[in-house]
Design goal:
1 helix; mainly beta
Length: 106
């Protein structure tokens, strides 16, 4: 099942899914879809990883992993090329922290 909410120029859809081939940890996950409509505010002042997704009108693809047909693999792609800097530059010190390398709130 899913829930969709529209607020201003944004539409959010949340879906519950199973974690496939789970080794440990939670057996369910939430997939969240964001859509910007019209002249969404994030286009002029993107903030963080999700905000940068809406900074351009078209898709901006970064590094991706190639998944084998079978067996194990180790992911290494962290969106390099589609984001400013590297993924580690977006880490924050605590759950409610807003300061990181590209913060717009400090």
């Amino acid at each position: 099942s899913s829930a969709t909410v529209s607020i201003g120029n944004w539409t959010f859809t949340v879906r519950g899914n199973s974690v496939y081939d789970r080794i440990s940890g939670p057996s369910h996950r939430l997939d969240i879809d964001f859509k910007a409509h019209g002249d969404a505010a994030a286009r002029s002042m993107p903030h963080g990883l999700v905000g940068q997704s809406f900074a351009w009108d078209g898709a901006k693809n970064g590094k991706t992993d190639e998944y084998p047909e079978s067996g194990y693999y180790k992911t290494s792609a962290m969106a390099e090329g589609a984001i400013e800097g590297e993924a580690a530059m977006y880490q924050v010190a605590s759950a409610y922290e807003t300061h990181f390398a590209f913060s717009r709130f400090d």
